[in-house]
From TrEMBL:
<comment type="similarity">
    <text>Belongs to the enoyl-CoA hydratase/isomerase family.</text>
</comment>
<dbReference type="InterPro" id="IPR001753">
    <property type="entry name" value="Enoyl-CoA_hydra/iso"/>
</dbReference>
<keyword id="KW-0413">Isomerase</keyword>
<protein>
    <submittedName>
        <fullName>Enoyl-CoA hydratase/isomerase family protein</fullName>
    </submittedName>
</protein>
<dbReference type="InterPro" id="IPR029045">
    <property type="entry name" value="ClpP/crotonase-like_dom_sf"/>
</dbReference>
<dbReference type="InterPro" id="IPR014748">
    <property type="entry name" value="Enoyl-CoA_hydra_C"/>
</dbReference>
<dbReference type="GO" id="GO:0016853">
    <property type="term" value="F:isomerase activity"/>
</dbReference>
<dbReference type="Pfam" id="PF00378">
    <property type="entry name" value="ECH_1"/>
</dbReference>
Amino acid sequence: SVVYDTGDGYAKLTLNRSETLNAFTPDMHAGLMEGLARAEADPACRAVLITGAGRGFCAGQDLRDRDPRKMDGPPDLSDSVGRYYNTLVRRIREFDKPVICAVNGVAAGAGIGIALACDITLASEEAPLAIGFSRIGLVPDAGTSWTLTRRLGEARAMGLALTGGRLSGREAADWGLIWRAVPNEDLATEAEIMTAQLARGPAQALRLTRNAIRAAADQPLDDQLELERGFQGQAGRSPDYAEGVLAFLEKRKPCFAGA
Ligand code: LHQ
């Protein structure tokens, strides 16, 4: 239920259960974890792109598996959240290569959580992001209570979460929830160009950059300045920095080898 393709220096993972708008099953979780492991182990792969097949990106948990009439009693959802969603969100966040997400169509519930866990999220302008959870009597999971609040502030996060409301990809970009929204017909190409560009980038500097941006949310300026000092020290010792400066001086494009 997840298709693995290789692009120009990157891996593309496509959620592929389009008859349910790519809703999550244990199989799909396993497919994503396997795809990430394969991408991580492949030295030729320097970035990952996650997207969906068909007209949807991901409709969150597959609710057909959850028919209360077929259960003995109320389920313990903390088990599936812990085992599947938290594991996946942590894996994406801790992945050591840039992870890009192209939200090609509707995203709901935990599907939004996965999209927002990636380093860069692009969406089709018209794609509905349907927060959902409260509409079926649940609470935000897959990190959405954290990403929505961090990126939107409490007023918008609370409004969206309590109403289970929707944003279009365009609104999500305007609100600062995602990197950019693009016309649907351009999304796949734009996401692939961007992923390939990051794959050609100075890998160590990109890793440190990601860590610096993330750390900034949690600490005062003084501590962040110290962190920048340390990171720049590391970046300055990398062959990619020498190549970057040399390429500038020689008026050519840099060719980063970095690992
Ligand atoms: C689906 C689904 C779906 C199965 C559409 N499952 N088939 C964590 C831990 C454990 C348990 C619970 O949850 C969680 C976290 C979560 O993710 S909770 C959130 C779960 N997801 C939702 O509540 C979203 C449910 N889906 C919808 O609200 C709509 O389908 C959306 C807004 C996604 C799309 O609406 P439309 O574009 O109008 O499409 P549609 O509703 O007609 O769906 C198309 C097909 O996909 C349809 O099948 P059918 O056989 O009738 O054509 C749907 O049944 C199926 N589908 N979502 N989550």
